[in-house]
Each structure stands twice: as structure tokens, then as C-alpha cells.
Write a structure and sequence with these properties.
2 copies of one chain form a homodimer.
Chain A lengths: L21 H23 L2 H7 L4 H8 L2 H20 L9 H18 L1 H12 L9 H7 L4 H12 L9 H17 L1 H8 L6 H19 L9
Chain B binds a DNA duplex (30 and 30 nucleotides) through helix 3.
DNA sequence: AGTTATGTACGAACTGGTTCGTTCACGACA
DNA sequence: TGTCGTGAACGAACCAGTTCGTACATAACT
């Protein structure tokens, strides 16, 4: 409803000595807030603490984000956007199906591992029953393309006769996600309970290789070892 | 400040038998607290809210559990204990390796599904970097036996020549856990993002079958479709 | 009687959100 | 070129509601 007629900024190019930098302010606040929310959860995070860590005052948080939940929602969207953008880095065009799937799983594994903050935000959001994800129409758009990769790889694999038909791309994505997500999300408790560092490089390599193998064997054309 | 006349509860009257039941009080409090913590997390849960839902007053919580974190710790231990006890139900003795593994995965899948509260507590605890699990020496003891099943099945499978050697029981357990845990922990966001109800019975059956197949194919003796 | 168990009222600290006023860049204009 | 009006950007202090934890009184049991 706010019709902007001011147009106070005459020259968008004039970034000579901008002392006032609303976009930068927003970014700085969001960056800090993302860390705090990922670390402490929605109710655990403290607005005063976030403010203290930014270069600005609490007033600015409310000025730009309205309230705590608004800030959290933006942090959530921010996390999804960052990760989805990172996924665009993956290039599997031209690779034969098996190599492509291998690379996809390895990439996903590493990618999740690099973005623990995102993993934590997703966990937190699940704790909240997706209450905030639901409010964000921005996030869903980002994700429709998430199964594109696996979908294309799988189709090609079936066409070429190396993958068995009848499988579902979304379910394959689900399986890859499960293996890669769990590795980050539950590493702490798993390591504690079994007295073994599941974050150690060598161990991670093993888990990654296992994940790749699981997927490859699952989609492979040859018969399953046991028919139920 | 309005001085409110103390309206003491009318005496319980002719209560012949035990009116004081410390163990029952503890149990009642712990039961309610477990639900609240699983629902709202440590910082999200409210002591007053927990007290209101019990048959007792907030005073009793502090009397029996010391403070909020003490109560949370007990709730966490309670969740682990309940689930581990449930796992003892599984009987795979005498089954051939493939059938045993099948049943183990199916059971784990269903068991996790039935104990969402436990799943949520584990998620919450991971958010806290296992800070409270660390304090509990009771929990670790419960879990050393958790890999016993998979370990025995796998050994037997290798001996009988149906499973390939060189795999690690703890890693197998890790893989089974990943698939089964994720199904509960991330169902909400996953369903939202892909616009598909991953909690629907038919869908669950598919996911369960996929999980079983993944494990069976992973341990199967036959060669992998792709050697890296 | 003395110990255990329980409820009620309350306080100190915390926390999300607001109020009010100041600073600063920028352009109009003398 | 210097001054001044204007609105966006921002900070310190404050407010009202919340929340953990406790003091005190009292009932029940041994």
C-alpha cells in the first residue's frame, strides 16, 4: 500500500561515501540473526543478543524486520536461498548416469556438510512443525527445481538401460537427503552414544562412499539379492 | 495489590489409602514434561505450563527435579529409556540373515514412526550440541547394546556367504538410523516443499520398502554395479 | 514430634517491543 | 558557497508482560 513517491535517492550509482546504507544494514542484521537462530532456535535466540552482535541497535531490527518472528522468517528464507544457490554449482551435464548420480550424491553429502547452519535451521523448523516455512511462499519456489537433477539423471539411466525402471525421483531425492542430512543433523548425539567421531575426515569419507554405493546399488538394473 | 484470601482446597476427606505418592507424582510430572519439552524444546517449554498440566503445583517440579534443566535431562533420559525398552521387543533370533535384516529395518522404521516424541527430543538435543546427553551417564549405557542386533545379523550373513565382508556394523546401524530417523524428523518440511504427504500410509509403505531394499542391496554379496 | 510432601503467593530478572528524540545526507535557495 | 528544511536512519531509555525460582505456611504420614 505504501506508494513511494519520495525517490530520495537520485543517483543509484553514487556510491561514493554512503554513510546511510539500508541494504547493508539489513544484510548485517540478517547475517548475525541467522547465526543466532541457527545456534539457539527461535525461542532460544535473544533479540538483544542479536542486536549487540550487529553494528546496529535493537531499534533497527524492529525497523527493518517488524518483530522476532519476521526476522526468523527472513533468516529461514535466507538459509534456503543460500543453499539452493550453492546447489546450482553442481554440473552433471554430459556425464553418464552412473557417474552423474555418483557426483550428485557426493556433492549433496559435502554440500550439507558445509552448510550446517542450514541443516540446523531445517531441524528447528521441523520442531516448529513447519509453521514458518508455511508462511513463506518464497521458499517453495526455490525448491521445485531441487529434484530436477535427480529426475534427469534417473530418466537417462533408465533410457540407457543401466537403471531399473519404476522408481520415483522424489523418493530418490528423499533417500539421498536422508543419508546426507542425518550425517550432519545427528552427528553429535550419534558420536556421543557410540563413542566414535563421525565428523573425522576419514570417517566422513567412508560414510560418503557408503551413501553413494547405497544409491548406486539401489537404482542398478541387476536383480535385487532378495525378492520379498 | 489485592490481598486474595487463601482459598485452600477442601480437604480430600475420607481418603483412606495413600494420599501421598511421591513416585506417582514424579511419574506424572515427568510424563507431562516430556510431552512439553518434545513439543516446544528446552527454552520453548514453560515450567508454569507444565505445572498446570500436571495434577500438582510448580513447587513439586522444583521439589523433585531441582530446576528446569534437571527436569529436561530426566525427560531426555526417559525418552531414550522408553525407546530402548521398546527395541527389546524385536525378535530376530533364528531368522536367516536376509529375513532378519529385513525385519530389523522394518521394525526400526515403524518404531521410529511410533515414537515421534523421542525423535523430537533427539533433534532438540542435537540442536543443543548434545549438551545434556553429555551429562547423562545413564543414557550411554542403554545404547551400547543398540548395535548388537545388526552386528549379529551381519556376521551371520557374512559367514553364510550371503553378505559381502568388510562392512562395519556401526556404519550399517548409522545407515538404517538415517533412513528411519529422517522419515520422521523431516517429514513436515519435506512434505511442504514437495507438496506431497510423506506421512500417508501408502507413501510410508513405499519408503519403508525402499529403505529395506537399500540395505539389502548394500550388504548383498553380488558385485556392485559400479566399481569406483 | 519430626519428617516428608504440597500449595500459594510473590519477587527479581529477563525480554520483546515501543517511545521519543537525535544525527545525517541531500537538495533548495540565498 | 553557505545555510537551512526535510525525511530517512538510528540510539538510549523505557514499558509491560513473562518466567524461573523461592519463601512461607500447612497438611499428611511415621
Amino acid at each position: 500500500m505504501a506508494v513511494i513517491k519520495k525517490e530520495r535517492k537520485p543517483k543509484p550509482d553514487a556510491n561514493t561515501t554512503r554513510i546511510q546504507d539500508p541494504e547493508g544494514t539489513r544484510r548485517n542484521i540478517l547475517e548475525i540473526a541467522s547465526k543466532e537462530f541457527a545456534l539457539n532456535g527461535l525461542s532460544g535466540a535473544r533479540i538483544d543478543e542479536i542486536a549487540a552482535r550487529t553494528r546496529f541497535s535493537k531499534r533497527m531490527i524492529y525497523y527493518y524486520f517488524g518483530d522476532k518472528e519476521g526476522l526468523y522468517l527472513r533468516a529461514l528464507e535466507n538459509a534456503y536461498r543460500q543453499v539452493r544457490e550453492g546447489e546450482a554449482q553442481l554440473d552433471i551435464e554430459g556425464l553418464p548416469p552412473v557417474a552423474a548420480l555418483t557426483r550428485l550424491v557426493e556433492f549433496t553429502f559435502d554440500h550439507h556438510h558445509r552448510h550446517e547452519e542450514f541443516i540446523r535451521m531445517v531441524m528447528i523448523e521441523n520442531i516448529h512443525h513447519g509453521q514458518y516455512l508455511e508462511q513463506s511462499n518464497a521458499i517453495r519456489e526455490l525448491n521445485v527445481t531441487a529434484i530436477d537433477h535427480i529426475s534427469r539423471i534417473y530418466s537417462r539411466g533408465v533410457e540407457e538401460g543401466v537403471f531399473r525402471p519404476g522408481l520415483d525421483a522424489v523418493e530418490l531425492h528423499w533417500q539421498i537427503s536422508a543419508l546426507c542430512f542425518f550425517n550432519v543433523s545427528n552427528r553429535t548425539t550419534f558420536s556421543m552414544i557410540f563413542g566414535r567421531d563421525f565428523g573425522a575426515p576419514a570417517q566422513l569419507e567412508r560414510l560418503k562412499r557408503n551413501s553413494v554405493e547405497m544409491l548406486l546399488r539401489f537404482v542398478a538394473k541387476d536383480e535385487a539379492p532378495a525378492e520379498r
